[in-house]
Design goal:
The complex is a heterodimer of chains A (338) and B (152).
Chain A lengths: L2 H19 L5 E7 L6 E6 L2 H4 L2 E2 L12 H7 L18 E5 L1 H12 L8 E5 L8 H7 L7 E4 L3 E6 L2 E6 H4 L2 H4 L11 E2 L14 H7 L3 H12 L7 H4 L25 H14 L9 H5 L7 H15 L27
Parallel strand pairs in A: 1-4, 4-5, 5-9
Antiparallel strand pairs in A: 1-2, 1-3, 6-7, 7-8
Helix pairs in contact in A: 11-13
Chain B lengths: L8 E6 L3 H10 L8 E6 L7 H9 L4 E6 L10 H18 L7 E5 L5 H18 L16 H5 L1
Parallel strand pairs in B: 1-2, 1-3, 3-4
Helix pairs in contact in B: 1-4
The chains are: A alpha/beta (338), B alpha/beta (152).
The complex binds iron/sulfur cluster (SF4) (3 copies) and FE2/S2 (inorganic) cluster.
The site of one iron/sulfur cluster (SF4) has 13 residues of chain A, from helix 10.
């Protein structure tokens, strides 16, 4: 067992137990062990007993901030849409937050999706999460029956094999380029601060595509999205996507058709990424949950890179700075215009 | 490509400066290319990425978006917010392989009838050069039913 992560797990359990017993929070969003090896499942703990099931490890690949706005809403007393909020404090929710998760919480705060006084953040430094596909390719896709983590390695075994894999070889690509492994907002700390990672190039994939010719880029894009089955898992899992009706579900006008026509799939991907412009935290949830292994994070990374180049800011890192697309400067570049 | 091919260009013009500029061009009997189909919008910031991509999807060979000059927006700063979005959108669609000349942005004041005609001419010439749009066009679209049909 990883010493670091089991210590964090212990701290989470005792802290959450205390918060839930004292009824300081009504629920806590964290993770429990999944049913398959190397998986962790998002979980809402609502009683002190639930808290004993919480875990933290390198398999927590889904950004739990996605559950925050709907969970807070569900804890409000039922009322009609036009009725005012009831007097007095509303139930609070606790949440576990690493660097990028806390950035998403910070963005939700800035976008008025959640109220700061109703959220209790348990912050932890994060050493990165494991990409199942990378593990799979190392063990040639054999079925893993058992897996456990050590501090810098994971050990996987199955029928006729047992291997120890270095953690840094199987971290997700977004974790390898993470610039913010420690939480930007928190109320309680669990575990220690982790050192900032040395990231020489934050956008290696974007650079690679940018260096191609126009036709090659189009070829790459069409090839990349060709297997998309439009399950919208990448949208559902994203903490930025809280629109009551997403553009993909609009029927009049129908921005994207329901068909698998490449034009529809292309528009879906461009718009989904564009809606995350200046907001994406590179948490990697979208890419992780894609059943078809599509690297759609390249598109949001391209936008992040451009936002840094053009406007010098990045979402969620500094919670006092306005989000890049909710502000402007008179001197913004406009040399792209005719 | 046949000699007679003419591009279809959709222009989203803001109600307060660019549309009046096109109007002024009309009143002043300045000729502009018939390839340009104008859609009047309240402000350049009304022009979402959805609208631009829908135009391309529906077979437009080029798109033009225009609003008031910075500082002149009827809603004070709509065009300044829009400018950031347009810059990012243009970069993104070029990143995925849409030809740079397909989607164009510019500012025009209500008095700039001559300028808007010039821009329309340049854009339609450059789109003509690019040829018919092939990327992003939906090929087998089922024609949408109009609201009237619903009650027929
Ligand atoms: S999760 Fe993958 S397959 Fe599903 S819609 Fe997103 S990109 Fe397409
Ligand atoms: S993709 Fe866009 S419209 Fe859909 S939920 Fe996300 S932000 Fe909203
Ligand atoms: S677009 Fe993907 S990487 Fe960005 S915040 Fe959403 S889920 Fe995370
Ligand atoms: S009203 Fe013309 S750009 Fe806003």
């Amino acid at each position: 067992m990883s010493q670091i992560n089991s210590k964090i797990t212990e701290e989470i359990r005792s802290k959450v137990k205390a918060l839930l017993s004292a009824e300081e929070i009504a629920a806590f969003v964290g993770f429990i062990d999944g049913t398959l090896p190397m998986t962790a499942r998002p979980f809402t703990a609502r009683s002190p007993e639930d808290a004993d099931r919480l875990v933290f490890n390198s398999f927590c690949v889904v950004n739990p901030a996605v559950y925050l706005p709907p969970l807070l809403k569900s804890l409000e007393p039922p009322r009609r849409p036009t009725d005012p909020l009831p007097e007095g404090p509303l139930p609070k929710v606790g949440i576990l937050a690493t660097g990028c998760w806390s950035r998403n919480i910070s963005i939700q705060l800035q976008e008025n999706q959640i109220a700061r006084e109703r959220v209790v953040v348990l912050g932890t430094g994060c050493r990165g999460m494991v990409d199942m596909r990378k593990v799979g390719s190392i063990i040639d896709g054999r079925e893993i029956e058992k897996a456990y983590e050590l501090d810098d390695r994971i050990s996987v075994s199955g029928k006729g094999f047992s291997e120890e894999i270095l953690l840094e070889d199987v971290l997700r690509d977004n974790c390898l380029t993470c610039i913010c492994p420690n939480p930007v907002i928190m109320d309680h700390r669990v575990g220690g601060q982790v050192p900032d990672r040395r990231v020489d190039n934050r956008f290696p994939f974007v650079d690679e595509i940018e260096s191609k010719s126009l036709d090659k880029r189009w070829e790459w894009f069409q090839n990349e999205i060709s297997s998309c089955i439009r399950c919208y898992a990448c949208r559902n899992v994203c903490p930025l996507c809280y629109c009551p009706t997403c553009f993909v579900d609009d029927s009049r006008p129908q921005w994207v058709g329901k068909s698998l026509d490449p034009a529809d799939t292309s528009i879906f991907h461009i718009l989904r990424a564009f809606h995350c412009a200046g907001r994406c935290t590179n948490c990697g949830s979208c890419e992780t949950v894609c059943p078809m292994g599509i690297n759609m994070r390249v598109l949001t990374s391209k936008l992040t890179k451009d936002v840094i180049d053009l406007y010098g800011t990045e979402a969620g890192v500094d919670s006092d700075a306005p989000l890049p697309l909710t502000t402007y400067s008179e001197t913004d570049r406009q040399d792209f215009m005719v | 490509m046949s000699q007679s091919w003419e591009p279809k260009i959709i222009a989203f013009l803001c109600n307060w400066c660019s549309y009046p500029a096109a109007d002024l061009a009309g009143v002043g009997r300045m000729q502009y290319p018939p390839n340009v189909r104008i859609v009047r919008v309240p402000c350049s910031s009304r022009v979402s990425a959805n609208l631009i991509l829908s135009a391309l999807k529906s077979g437009a060979d080029g798109v033009l978006v225009s609003g008031c000059h910075p500082g002149d927006c009827h809603y004070i700063s709509g065009n300044l917010y829009a400018r950031r979005r347009f810059a990012l959108l243009k970069n993104l669609i070029e990143f995925i392989g849409i030809e740079p000349g397909r989607v164009n942005f510019f500012w025009a004041a209500a008095s700039e009838g001559g300028k808007i005609v010039e821009v329309m001419k340049t854009v339609s010439a450059s789109v003509k050069e690019l040829g018919p749009a092939g990327r992003m066009v939906k090929r087998f679209d089922v024609p949408a039913r109009s609201p009237q049909q619903k009650f027929a």
